[in-house]
């Protein structure tokens, strides 16, 4: 993989020319900033891409703070380590943003993941259920809360909105042990790009280390290959990075969401 070329393609397709991740949201291009504005206050709002320099960064940051503050909305500046200027993180912190934990932007060739993960099987007693209704969304949200220890209220609303308005752009599955959900993972599809992105994959504590996460990555790779996508993209935590590397993912950058709360 030509990592520099793939990173440039990712920036161009997934950030600079991003499409809304929810049917009700909109993407706006304001000068050298691309942002998403949700239809509701609890939707995801944030800056997806920026092409700033020393002379323009502070004014652009102030403009976004003013805009989202006028809407009385929390928003995220999705900052990558290769973004410019080099001190953009320090400028965001000075403006009142708070950083979330860092993650690693990882990308893999879909066919390579499909080949490596061909024998990644689910543990005995686990089956996959595709989410097609509100009950399935609730199962996925329950897993999220157990796996990550955070509220899934926003996630539940977002998944329900996607299921109603644009079901063809994502694939969501829940791994079940009997009637108990133990892992949930989704794949966002981005028509017109080379990328499908993997999200979730959280496993409840009692089922970690048994290969469920790995099997769900392989499952989604097979779907992406069938749909003609070239790359899989993940914002990987420290816990998932080693598993993804064994499946053929390579790190291209790091990302630290910076959050501003009016």
UniProtKB/TrEMBL annotation:
Q: Which residues form the N-acetyltransferase domain?
A: 126-262
GO terms of molecular function: acyltransferase activity, transferring groups other than amino-acyl groups
Organism's domain of life?
A: Bacteria
Q: Which CDD domains match?
A: NAT_SF (cd04301)
Please identify the protein, giving its name as recorded. Answer: GNAT family N-acetyltransferase
One Pfam match, given by its short name, reads Acetyltransf_1
